[in-house]
Amino acid sequence: MIKKHLSLFILSISLFSCINNEINEVNSASENKPISFRTLRDKPTTRYANDNKDDYQVYAIIDGAVDWYFTTIVKPNTSGTSGAIDETSGTYYWPGVKKVDFYAFCPDTTSSNIMMEFTVPDSVIANRQIYMIYTVPSTADEDFTIAVPATGETKSPVALTFKHMLSKVTIQLILDENLTDIYTLDANWSAIFSVVYTSGTIDATSATDATGNDAWDSTYQSSLTSYTNSNSETETCSFIILPQATVNNPELTLQITDVTINTKSGVEYFKGSLETISFTSDLTTLPEDFLAGSQYNFVITITDTADDSSDDPIFNGEITFSSSTVDWDDVPVDITQP
To answer: pTM for this structure?
Structure first.
């Protein structure tokens, strides 16, 4: 009887020892291995973080934990190699067999346009929330992207897919075909785009799950802000703006300035600004909202009945225009040079 109990005791120790060894083997396989990231810029259905290869911020939390595991700034790999690893600002290791969730956004927290809003740190962390206030810069030329949360990760590299959280408005200016036989439009002109909402609050842990503009709380409203950009070599002006409603928004206006129209012989015929366009009253095809992740293309046509900024006729008339909405993810445009 004593021998039987002794045998069972020895067997229990052996089983426990085997299980413990298996756990140690798993731990040793994961521990001390650095965590690394890559952005899915080699996929045709995704877009690169911030489109101008800016550094991005990563927050990591271990499954079941109440405190952030770490936060780091990551520098994207610009070698062009498919699946290339991005470089973190420090070295962080996988915590054994535990899973880790990752949240990321771009630009990182060193940007003057981002203000973190951890007003109640404990509850914010417990609910996996990363609240921040983002303000569109005065140049209206900086994109803001948030990665789809990468949850339950156990090995490197962690793949991050970023989504646009702002809207893009692109302006093109052309002469009506009835005028092109007599006049030419100088390629150098500017646009002034006036909006009300310039900053808003967003949660980086859930923003990509929202539809439309639901991710933003645009309660942070400034006074009327006008962005001025000159057209680039593409002969368009582009603005990156906070998503906002266009319906019943009389402050939403566009004015084309610094316009020069010459005769075919090279004689200057007109130089100045065009009549201001109200999005609310002048556009009939405007969508109800400027949505996050969408680009809106506006074609301004100067006709023979167009007016200048003083409401005087240039050729005795009005400006006509049309608009279209384009899925941002499918349009390979350079948003760093509005």
So the answer is: 0.78
Note the pLDDT tens digit of each residue in 34-89.
999 988 654 433 344 456 578 999 999 998 888 889 999 999 887 766 667 888 88
* Class of domain 167-197+222-330 (CATH, top level): mainly beta
* Coil/strand/helix, residue 4: helix
Quote the longest CA-to-CA distance of the chain. 117
Distance CA(203)–CA(125), nearest Å, equals 12
> Assign residue 272 a region: left if phi > 0, alpha if psi is -120 to 50, beta otherwise?
left
Q: Contact 179/314 with Cβ under 8 angstroms? A: no
329 secondary structure, DSSP code: G
**Cα separation values, 141 from 22, 60, 223, 244, 313, Å:** 54, 29, 19, 17, 33
Q: Which residues are 257's β-sheet partners?
A: 190
The DSSP result for 239-295, as a single string, is EEE--EE-TT-TT-EEEEESEEEEETTS-EEEEE-BPPEEHHHH-SS--SEE-TTEE
Tokens of 308: 């200048």
